TrEMBL record:
GO terms for molecular function: ATP binding; phosphorelay response regulator activity; phosphorelay sensor kinase activity; protein kinase activator activity. Its EC number is 2.7.13.3. It holds the Pfam family HATPase_c. It is an enzyme of class 2 (transferase). It comes from the Bacteria. One of its GO terms (biological process) is osmosensory signaling via phosphorelay pathway. This is histidine kinase. It catalyses: ATP + protein L-histidine = ADP + protein N-phospho-L-histidine. SMART domains: HATPase_c.
């Protein structure tokens, strides 16, 4: 490496050289014109100053060019362009500044490349996820503008067209009424869209947060139909194993007892026959009760629709399980199968009591809406996580050790037999709300 020469040293040497040159010129002129000191000094300055100015400009020009280059690269950095670097041929403090500036540019360039790669990876993942994602700005209740929508959201809500910039209310005007109702209800939950073979089950999740000082809401729509069907197949396999196990546990003792009874009759020892027959009867009744419990769900009869006044219906419910009626009951009588609807609501109310909710917070509310009747069972228990919400309506799925998994599934069957549907959603402040939606 060459010897390092600092700026201070260079400028000091330059000024000293010029001063020495001026002194030499002055001494030479004074020798030629003795006694003319002022004239000598003026002549020396007239010679030295132009040289000094020219020399200083020649030295400053590359430095000014470097400063302009620094300003240009900083502007490029502001615009996100980190491809520029600088060169300074001297070995001085400015060389240190240029080296630090180039090192900063390299770091920013590497960070920008890494950030671009992460953004591409994240965008690829988000765009190809089967979950429909909508990011909505202020006024997400229907007045907010859609800031971002992935491919699944475009296909589900916009027939593949771009949704960004549109109002959420515009998109919802073309969407399923079940989705509109689920959004209006608030919180996370399940809802069903379509009828018959076209019925689809969705899970709606929503999260609010601030972005650049403004409130935004992220809506996640996940189609669960295929997952539910897969879970149903797995559950039915489990049910078949449970039934087979229960049948074997009952039939094996019955076979043994029948053989023992026959042997005792052959030997003429009939004193133990009453005990054997009593055991056989007990096991048979247990098996009959077990099979009827499952058959009752599988063979739900068609509902017998009739008018049912609300006061009497609610009184019968309250005599069997604790509940608090929220609001006022509709004056018009309901039209449904009283026995089936009573069974469905009993299951929902018992689940609410078993959720850990205080008994006083188990509430039933009946509301009339245009063309529909809403019966809401609410509690302040633990609610449901996403996994439980996903499988809650699957027959025989239960998180309780002794649960049959038929309560919610039976309520769903009864609601659909009446031409309605059932929805589940976690409540703000904790707890769950299960809603039976029936034709009015």
């Amino acid at each position: 490496m060459g010897m390092r020469l600092s700026l201070v040293t260079r400028w000091t040497a330059l000024v000293g050289t010029l001063l020495a040159l001026g002194i030499l010129i002055a001494l030479g002129l004074d020798h030629l014109l003795p006694g003319r000191a002022l004239l000598v000094l003026a002549l020396s300055l007239a010679c030295v100053v132009p040289i000094a100015v020219i020399t200083m400009r020649a030295q400053i020009r590359p430095i000014l060019s470097l400063f302009r280059a620094l300003e240009g690269t900083v502007t490029s950095y502001k615009d996100g362009d980190f491809s520029f670097s600088l060169h300074w041929p001297q070995n001085d403090e400015l060389a240190d500044l240029v080296a630090a500036h180039n090192a900063l540019g390299n770091v920013l360039r590497e960070q920008r490349l890494a950030l671009v790669q992460r953004e591409l990876l994240l965008d690829t993942m988000v765009q190809n996820t089967p979950v429909a994602m909508l990011l909505v700005g202020d006024g997400a209740g229907g007045t907010g503008a859609i800031v971002y929508a992935n491919l699944s959201a475009r296909q589900m809500l916009g027939d593949g067209r771009k949704l960004e910039g549109h109002r959420l209310s515009e998109i919802l005007s073309q969407a399923s009424p079940a989705l509109v109702e689920a959004l209006a209800r608030g919180g996370d939950g399940l809802f069903t869209a379509g009828e018959g073979e076209d019925e689809e089950v969705y899970h709606l999740a929503r999260r609010s947060f601030s972005l650049n000082g403004r409130k935004h809401e992220l809506l996640l729509l996940r189609q669960l139909t295929h997952e539910l069907r897969r879970q149903e197949v797995q559950t039915w396999k489990k049910v078949i194993r449970v039934i087979s196990h229960e049948l074997n546990n009952s039939l094996a003792p019955l076979t043994s007892l029948a053989h023992s009874g026959a042997e005792l009759v052959r030997r003429g020892q009939t004193e133990r026959l009453p005990q054997i027959l009593e055991t056989i009867e007990e096991r048979t009744r247990h098996l009959e009760s077990f099979i009827l419990g499952y058959a009752r769900f599988a063979k739900l009869p068609s509902p017998r629709i009739e008018e049912c006044p609300w006061p009497g219906f609610i009184s019968r419910l309250a005599s069997q399980v604790g509940l608090t009626v929220a609001g006022t009951l509709p004056p018009e009588p309901a039209r449904f199968d009283p026995a089936q609807m009573e069974q469905a609501l009993l299951n929902l109310l018992k689940n609410a009591h078993e959720s850990g909710s205080p008994a006083a917070d188990v509430t039933l509310q009946v509301r009339l809406a245009p063309g529909m009747l809403r019966i809401e069972v609410m509690d302040r228990g633990q609610g449901m996580n996403d996994a439980v919400l996903t499988n809650a309506l699957v027959p025989f799925y239960s998180t309780k050790r002794s649960g049959t998994g038929l309560g919610l599934a039976l309520a769903r069957e009864i609601a659909e037999a009446h031409g309605g549907r059932i929805t589940l959603g976690n409540r703000d402040g904790g707890g769950l709300m299960v809603t039976l939606i029936l034709p009015a």
